[in-house]
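Predict structure. Chain length: 222.
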Amino acid sequence: MPESLQHHWDRVYREKAADAVSWFQAEPAMSLDLIAAAGVGPADPIIDIGAGASTLMDRLAALGFESVTALDIAALPLELALKRLGPAGARVEWLTRDVTRWSPSSNAYALWHDRAVFHFLTQAADRAGYLHAMGRGLRDGGWAVIATFAPTGPQACSGLPVQRYAPAQLAEVLGPRFHLVESRAETHVTPAGGRQDFTWCLFRKAPPGAAASMRPDRGDAG
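Prediction complete.
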């Protein structure tokens, strides 16, 4: 029987230290830049999809964010992050969920952050489940920061295939309710010294029936 995705990612974190996995960033600079660009404040609820043991939770706590949720399909990386944060971890809601099969509370979040989950969804049904969760959980006028491998990025990661995206391709998949406000390119250097090209996009969710033209696309390639 094939290994479940939850067991796959738990095994990855059993076999490697959290700061040795290929996606590790000591400083989540691009995430923080785009969260700042969205203009959300410390009282606004934020969810990090595929949070794992990311240091983003640490940085958001240090910036005074009061309503942060960390969601991951695997429990072990969340446990590692909670232990690392210490008392600050008590201010984070930790959820072990498969986002493609999850139905969040309606309009629960002002900002949806995903660095490197969506590109693992190579099946249409999984993408549909993800988009249902994001569409339900993110309030109208809310923001989505999504990072995937770029067209020049890896074709697989951690032994799993990925779907690579340019900004326009990602916008097309998300649909007309999500207006592409800004896009950036980043080359992530892994702990082992490898290079991975990423597409970063900032989207804003339009109300039903509204033209998704809330702000012009800044299209930054920096």
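Summary: The chain has one domain: 5-205.
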